[in-house]
Amino acid sequence: MQDHQSQPLNDFIEYPHDEMLNRANEFLTTSQRRHSIRSFSDRPVPKNIIEACIKAAGTAPSGANHQPWHFVAINSSDVKKQIRDAAEKLERSFYEGRAGEEWLDALKPLGTDANKPYLEHAPWLIAVFSQKKGGVSTDDKNTNYYVHESVGLATGFLIQALHRSGLATLTHTPKPMSFLTDICGRDRDNERPYMLLIAGYPSDDATIPAHALDKKSIDEIATFI
Question: What region holds the Nitroreductase domain (predicted)?
């Protein structure tokens, strides 16, 4: 490696093999309990829990450590209503034919439609934005690298952090998502909406589509060589 400033790795913890396997299996079991739901309770969730989860997302690896993401955590009823109105307008055109027959057929087992009441009902929406330029300092104007990959990693961290804290989540990606830029007051020239996460407690009548429980086997998703 080239010369660079560094410090010793002093916070890595090595576990005995049996404990490694137990911890891996415990995480697998925890991950298997993570489900995308569409019926949320309006029970409030403290801001500090959302803050801690976003901090965890901010530890994700990124191209050149530029951390090309911004998270807008939305608790305001007025803003949530604006987002729902804009999203449902797009979703109506989507389900009325813009998506195409093949895509709509793929969605049928999930039971989704243009109605998105959870966008208003859930206590928190988190709009994830990617950034074309930036750097380690928020004042930097450097080109960001591997932006899509970096923001995807951070979003995955955020979903798991929310799940492990005891909250349910749903990913929502209306197309186009440019309305989020305006509603959230973000920089249209530099930032692009990446995903909208819904977070909160499940409602008492929350369900999971049977189709969503059908996961591929290890032989189907991995090859060991």
Answer: 33-201
Q: Are 124 and 40 in contact (CB under 8 A)?
A: no
Q: Are 182 and 69 in contact (CB under 8 A)?
A: no
Taking all residues of the chain, what is their mean pLDDT, rounded to a whole number?
A: 96
pLDDT at 126 (0 to 100): 98
> b or e along 93-125 (b: 16 or more beta carbons within 10 Å of the residue's beta carbon)?
ebbeeebeeeeeeeeeeeeeeeebebbbbbbbb
Q: What is the mean pLDDT of residues 166-175?
A: 94
Q: What is the mean pLDDT of residues 1-21?
A: 96
Give me 173's structure tokens. Answer: 């990606």
> What's the one-letter identity of residue 25?
N
Q: Specify the CATH class of 40-204 in words.
A: alpha beta
CB 194 within 8 A of CB 130: yes
